[in-house]
Specification:
The structure holds two protein chains of two kinds. By secondary structure, chain A is an alpha/beta fold. Chain A has one domain: Amidase signature (AS) domain (Amidase signature (AS) enzymes), CATH 3.90.1300. Chain A contains 15 helices and 13 strands. Chain A has an eleven-stranded mixed sheet with strand order 1-3-2-6-8-7-12-13-11-9-10, sandwiched between helices. Chain A has a two-stranded antiparallel sheet with strand order 4-5. In chain A, helix 2 packs antiparallel against helix 3, helix 9 packs across helix 11 and helix 9 packs across helix 12. By secondary structure, chain B is mainly alpha-helical. Chain B has a domain of 38 residues. The two termini of chain B are 39 Å apart. Classes of the chains: A alpha/beta, B mainly alpha. Chains A and B meet through helix 9, helix 10, helix 11, helix 12 and helix 13 of A and helix 1, helix 2 and helix 3 of B.
């Protein structure tokens, strides 16, 4: 049984009140957040208010749903009405949204207990969480290492038992990579399955919100709650089938695609763990099918061209006039906007805005943006062809394990971007993928594998993840020695 | 390759100031990233991108509904003035 169902049972049978549970999490945050830096804002009043509402329902004998009263966190780019949402950027300091993101509307309606907002790389741009204006979040499995990015705070909180689950956003791997680094499950849903309304935009054709949890069952429960068609997001179409009812299907006859392109340049120990995982799938009766994905060799440059182009346009809205930070001294409106943006954005964000401006500028548009769009079509074609021969593709999530904190200076930008090589193809194709823990390296740092599905096949990949967890005796689902113990 | 001058031009388009100290490092980093992006030139493809997930444009019914209160919107801009955003004259 997953953690959500366990806690739900404790609440329902009155073994613990929701107020007691919430207070336990708030105390743990008080004790451990200094070390983890997972939360950038803690919201005890909101949390306790929701907890009291749940306790009242239980006392009145009313039924509660699975997510009711479960303590959780939201990445700092998910809008919360009346509660600061800053994307961990100086430019959004003090910005208080006047509406809730769709996902938070859904969870709030289920009396979710929001403990606070989680740390992230500024505007979700980064792979270490160290681009946050509040400093990076630490990896609960080893505090000298990063939690990954960009949803590093949510992964740090869930891995450190300071939240049961977290919602992150994934534009090029920002849910799956930190989940992999922290030994957690992270789901990037199909593009359009979850509404982006209220998610502060980075690259609108790639962004998706999804859960970070301790196991596959919890990810399925949260996915079912947050997916759905939303008229507030014209690209939203909802999910085709709920994931939870499909979680006990045998994998016998499941065709698992293996693409050698995903295994090029992967560190030896990561590759060895993946090979072991593949043999577990074979033992469970899955059929291994070789598939070719030649275009994903270009996925990383394609991703950086498209994501930066979209970001340079999306981030044009930060002008210091309507919300957020405004520079103190200026001589004209142009000077005010330039100063505000130069002082408000961090180095990585500025670099990506400049790159995006470059690839969209006259003379370069055809060679970069237009060509990248064509190659996006080629990546989609490759996956379509692969999924005509298999039900799911198994691949590494990240070619390595978590970096040491503060080691960013030892890598140049391109080396850092290479971290995303296995995660970006999924965003380019708009398909779902879940990262599942499948091993440890020599230092005890988690290794993750990615189960990739065809459009709207969250049920297939979450069931496969769940069956893998059971077949391996849930050996890779390990809690860090901190936070709330059940 | 990208030159210092090109970066300064881009900065004007992107409404960013780039200081002399930032410029050298930025030129080097951007050059590296652009050379990396140039690898797509080696890729030949006849494919076209025609959207994700077979999504087509969706129009919702145009039904009048109350919008967000003006005062709430302006609260993030220090309250504004007479219902307008306000940029104070400085300098």
């Amino acid at each position: 049984m997953g953690k959500i169902a366990q806690l739900h049972r404790l609440l329902e049978t009155k073994k613990i009140s929701c107020k007691e549970l919430t207070e336990a999490y708030l105390r743990a945050i008080e004790a451990d957040n200094k070390a983890l830096n997972a939360y950038v804002r803690i919201t005890p009043d909101t949390a306790l208010q929701a907890a009291c509402a749940v306790d009242k329902k239980i006392a009145a004998g009313e039924a509660i749903c699975l997510l009711e009263g479960i303590p959780m966190t939201l990445k700092d780019n998910i809008s919360t009405r009346g509660m600061e949402t800053a994307c961990c950027s100086r430019i959004l300091q003090g910005y208080v949204p006047i509406y809730d993101a769709f996902v938070w509307q859904e969870l709030k309606a289920r009396n979710a207990v929001l403990l606070g907002k989680a740390n992230m790389d500024e505007f979700a741009m980064g792979s270490t969480c160290e681009n946050s204006c509040y400093g990076g979040a630490k990896n609960p499995r080893n505090l000298t290492h990063v939690s990954g990015g960009s949803s590093g705070g949510a992964a740090s909180a869930v891995g450190g038992n300071l939240a049961v689950y977290g919602l992150g956003s994934d534009t090029g791997g920002s849910i799956r990579q930190p989940a992999s680094f922290c030994g957690l499950v992270g789901l990037k849903p199909t593009y359009g399955a979850v509404s982006r309304f209220g998610l502060v935009a980075f690259a609108s054709s790639l962004d998706q919100i999804g859960p970070i949890t301790q196991d596959a069952e919890d990810a399925a429960i949260v996915f079912d709650a947050i997916s759905g068609k939303d008229p507030q997001d014209s690209t939203s179409c909802g999910s085709e089938e709920p994931a939870v009812p499909g979680l006990s299907k045998s994998l016998s006859g499941l065709r698992v695609g293996i693409a050698e392109e995903y295994f090029e340049g992967i560190r030896g120990d990561v590759k060895a763990s993946l090979e072991q995982a593949i043999s577990v799938f074979r033992e469970m009766g899955a059929e291994l099918v070789p598939v070719g994905l030649p275009s994903i060799r270009y996925a990383l440059p394609v991703y950086y061209i498209l994501a930066c182009a979209e970001a340079s346009s999306n981030l044009g809205r930060y002008d210091g006039i309507r919300y957020g930070y405004q520079a103190a001294g200026y001589s004209s409106i142009h000077d005010m906007i330039c100063r505000t943006r130069s002082e408000g954005f961090g180095a990585e964000v500025k670099r990506r805005i400049l790159l995006g401006t470059y690839v969209l500028s006259s003379g370069y548009y055809d060679a970069y943006y237009k060509k990248a769009q064509k190659l996006r079509g080629a990546v989609i074609q490759d996956f379509t062809e692969a999924f005509s021969r298999c039900d799911m593709i198994l691949a590494p999530t990240v070619p390595m394990t978590a970096f040491e904190s503060g080691s960013a200076g030892q890598r140049d930008a391109v080396e850092t971007y290479l971290t995303d090589i296995c995660t970006v193809p999924v965003n380019i194709a708009g398909i779902p993928a879940v990262s599942v823990p499948c091993g440890l390296d020599g230092e005890g740092l988690p290794i993750g594998m990615q189960l990739i599905g065809n459009h709207f096949r969250e049920r297939t990949i979450l069931n496969a993840a769940r069956q893998y967890e059971e077949a391996t005796g849930r050996v890779w689902i390990r809690s860090a020695e901190m936070g709330v113990k059940l | 390759m990208i030159t210092r001058e090109e970066i300064l031009d881009l900065a004007v388009l992107a409404k960013l100031f780039v200081s002399e100290e930032e410029l050298d490092a930025l030129t080097e980093e951007m050059s590296n990233i652009i050379s990396f992006a140039d690898t797509i030139n080696n890729a030949g493809t006849e494919a076209e991108f025609d959207g994700i997930n077979r999504l087509s444009n969706v129009f919702r019914e145009d039904v009048p509904a109350p919008s967000y209160p003006q005062e709430e919107i302006l609260r993030n801009a220090g309250g504004g003035e007479d219902g307008f955003f306000l940029v104070r004259r400085r300098g």
